[in-house]
Write a structure and sequence with these properties.
With about 150 residues, this protein is of the alpha+beta class. It is about 25% helix and about 25% strand. It is built from five helices and six strands; from the N terminus they run H-H-H-E-E-H-E-E-E-H-E. It has helices at about 1-15, 25-30, 45-50, 85-90, 130-135; strands at about 60-70, 75, 95-100, 120, 125-130, 140-145. The strands form two sheets. The protein has a four-stranded mixed sheet. A hairpin with a 5-residue loop joins strand 1 and strand 2 (about 75). Helix 1 (about 1-15) runs parallel beside helix 3 (about 45-50).
């Protein structure tokens, strides 16, 4: 993760100093605070947040149901959301996809979940707990997912 962050910093400072850069990586690698991870090891996102916080906007992808694939292309079913968890909360909408800006929201009863520890699913499969605003700036929530069509 340190190497990935160094590469992004180099791209930002040397190759494209006057341009915006989009980096697509797994949710784990882009989160900001390793203190909420079982390993406690710094992630690319934690390094980038330290170096470029004012220029950084990090989005996490969450899914509600469907079928997905592991890195080895093995298919699996997205597991049911934890009652009261983040996917259960966001799954109340009927939209096929939703975007939630965490960074620009003020404190209110309706946004309290953003700044408190909440149950969620990593990979749509493993139970996890995060504080959304500590880790990400936005959430992309997809209702139904499908695996890629491999050739």
């Amino acid at each position: 993760d340190a190497g990935m962050a160094d590469n992004v910093t180099w791209l930002h400072e040397e190759l494209f100093p006057d341009r915006k850069i989009m980096v697509w990586a797994h949710n784990f690698h882009v989160q900001h605070h390793a203190t909420e991870l079982p390993s406690g090891a710094p992630t690319m996102g934690s390094y980038l947040a330290q170096r470029h916080r004012s220029e950084l906007y990090t989005i996490r992808l969450f899914m509600y149901w469907g079928e997905a694939a592991w890195n080895d292309r093995t298919l699996y079913n997205v597991t049911d959301p934890v009652p009261g968890g983040l996917e259960a909360l966001l799954g109340r909408t009927s939209a096929p996809a939703s975007f939630v800006d965490l960074l620009g929201q003020g404190a209110s009863a309706g946004t309290a979940w953003m700044s408190t520890s909440i149950a969620t699913k990593s990979w749509g499969y493993y139970n996890d707990t995060i504080t959304p605003r500590r880790q990400y700036d936005g959430i992309l929530f997809v209702d139904e997912v499908h695996p890629p069509h491999y050739r």
